[in-house]
From TrEMBL, chain A:
One of its GO terms (molecular function) is iron ion binding. Coiled coil: none annotated. Keywords: Cell membrane, Heme, Iron, Membrane, Metal-binding, Repeat, Signal, Transmembrane, Transmembrane helix. This is Alcohol dehydrogenase cytochrome c subunit. PANTHER family: ALCOHOL DEHYDROGENASE CYTOCHROME C SUBUNIT (PTHR35008:SF8), BLL4482 PROTEIN-RELATED (PTHR35008). It comes from the Bacteria. Residues 49-154, 196-304 form the Cytochrome c domain. It comes from Limimaricola soesokkakensis. It is found in: Cell membrane.
From TrEMBL, chain B:
GO terms for biological process: electron transport chain. It holds the Pfam family Cytochrom_C_2. The keyword Metal-binding applies. Gene3D superfamilies: Cytochrome c/b562. Keywords: Electron transport, Heme, Iron, Metal-binding, Signal, Transport. One of its GO terms (cellular component) is periplasmic space. The lineage of its organism: Bacteria, Pseudomonadati, Pseudomonadota, Alphaproteobacteria, Rhodobacterales. PROSITE patterns: CYTCII (PS51009). This is Cytochrome c. InterPro entries: Cyt_c/b562 (IPR010980), Cyt_c_II (IPR002321), Cyt_c_prime (IPR012127), Cyt_c_prime_subgr (IPR015984). Binds 1 heme group per subunit.
Length: 304, 157
């Protein structure tokens, strides 16, 4: 008797379960891939590319730091060393114009969508280790110049190393959900109340320079805190980058000149040197920028 | 009279610091190491101040660089005894990889000699390059052997 009664009860439960599984499968297959796909419609042909400026944009974006295996003498832009995170190890791919292993087959449109929306030419999501959350603020002309420069780099037929991630973070489908929460690719809007230098600095810091990707704390699924640039703290879920804004800023007592000097040579005002990833960021990124741009970065950071 | 008596007592106490007390000894080792490192950092900061401020003291840069080279000679002995507990950022790896530590220190001494040379030549561009490589050599030893800032004992807990 008892057995019959339970089986009567289980039937609708099985049905309910079946329907939820089907709904989840539908969502997974058809809704998730569509999330976070939006790229702005812009006329990329409105700009004439400048290769030399593109080489400078590469330094503004700090691209070399991740896309070259610096410590092991890797070939320029042919793929980087691992970036270790709580989700596993990410390997920045080969971005030389090799058509098979690099990005030589990418059109300018593909490249623009990759940089701003974080979507591959095949319509898949890049993982947010590729900092499109910041690159989304890139000026269109800078992207055009950067692509023109990358097309002139020596192509290298070196396969990109696949990421080594733990499930469920290894699943690109879920990145769409992440993007709908944390990725808003809006072009940089200047603040007219501030100086031209401040605005240039704000653009460099929050857009190409992507400083917040390391200097802002992240939550358990890697979303950035709203305490932008206020450091990751000790206990938090990240690389341990110090605060460069807010009340705990480690650069509060630094002069503008100190900060410019630091971004050129990596020396702090108290005679110490930069540590961790910042060593590479300075050597392969900021030390290549003009004094004017470094002053702009310093002006902006000092105002936070 | 009382003053002289007190002075005698204080001096006596100083001399009678118990050498057998391991804790106090460890603290003194740490204190010395930190001041030695700060002295190097101080010279580095002084060089930076001359360059940053475009001060007419270019010839001082060579002096500071030579003093850094001198100070580097003191580093291996300062770190001979393993003291990695207490208020220090020294990583225990210093003592498990002492050869590497000593080698990196020697490279730092060479980099400061190179800075002294550049400063004597007087070309600001070369000086900046030499400072950069000296800074890098400091970092190359801090990276494996000094606790990162976020884990420093100086951080409030």
């Amino acid at each position: 008797m008892l057995a019959i009664r339970t089986s009567k009860m289980t039937k609708p439960i099985i049905w309910l379960f079946g329907i939820s599984v089907a709904a989840a499968a539908f969502g997974y297959a058809f809704i998730l891939p569509g999330l976070g796909q939006t790229a702005k419609n812009v006329d990329l042909n409105a700009y004439s590319a400048d290769v030399e400026r593109g080489a400078y944009v590469l330094r503004m974006g700090g691209c070399v730091v991740c896309h070259t295996d610096i410590d092991n003498g890797g070939v320029f832009l042919a793929g980087g060393a691992g970036l270790e995170t709580p989700f596993g190890t990410f390997y920045a791919p080969n971005i030389t114009p090799d058509t098979e292993h690099g990005i030589g087959a990418m059109s300018l449109e593909d490249f623009y969508v990759a940089m701003t929306a974080g979507v591959t030419p095949d319509g898949e999501h890049y993982f947010p280790s590729f900092p499109y959350t910041s690159y989304g603020h890139f000026k269109t002309e800078d992207i055009v110049d950067l692509k023109a420069y990358l097309d002139t780099v020596e192509p290298v037929a070196r396969p990109s190393q696949p990421h080594e991630l733990i499930w469920p973070f290894s699943n690109r489908q879920f990145v769409g959900v992440w993007k709908s929460l944390y990725h808003t690719p809006e072009p940089f809007v200047p603040n007219d109340a501030e100086s031209a230098s401040w605005n240039r600095g704000a653009y460099l810091v929050n857009g190409p320079g992507h400083c917040g990707e390391c200097h802002t704390a992240r939550n358990l699924i890697g979303g950035m805190s709203t305490n932008t640039l206020e450091g990751t703290g000790k206990s938090s879920f990240s690389s341990g980058a110090p605060a460069i804004a807010g009340s705990r800023s480690t650069i509060r007592d630094w002069s503008l000149n100190d900060l410019v000097f630091y971004l050129q040579l990596g020396l702090t005002p108290d005679g110490d040197v930069s540590g961790g990833k910042m060593i590479d960021v300075i050597e392969h990124g900021t030390s290549h920028l003009t004094g004017e741009d470094l002053e702009a970065i310093a002006t902006y950071l000092k105002s936070l | 009279m009382l003053g002289r008596f007190l002075a005698a007592v204080t001096l006596g106490a100083l001399i009678a610091v118990p050498g057998s007390h391991a804790r106090a000894n460890g603290d003194s080792v740490i204190e010395y190491r930190q001041h030695l490192m700060r002295a190097i950092g101080g010279h580095m900061a002084a060089v930076a101040a001359v360059v940053k401020g475009r001060l007419p003291l270019t010839e001082h840069i060579a002096e500071h660089a030579e003093l850094i080279e001198k100070a580097a000679e003191l580093v291996p002995a300062a770190f001979e005894e393993q003291v990695s507990d207490g208020l220090t950022d020294a990583q225990p790896e210093i003592w498990s990889k002492m050869d590497e530590f000593v080698e990196l220190n020697a490279e730092m001494a060479q980099a400061s000699a190179a800075l002294a040379n550049a400063a004597e030549e007087g070309d600001m561009r070369d000086i900046a390059m030499a400072m950069q490589s000296l800074g890098k050599s400091c970092g190359s030893c801090h990276q494996p052997f000094r606790k990162p800032k976020e884990e420093s004992y100086k951080q409030p807990r």
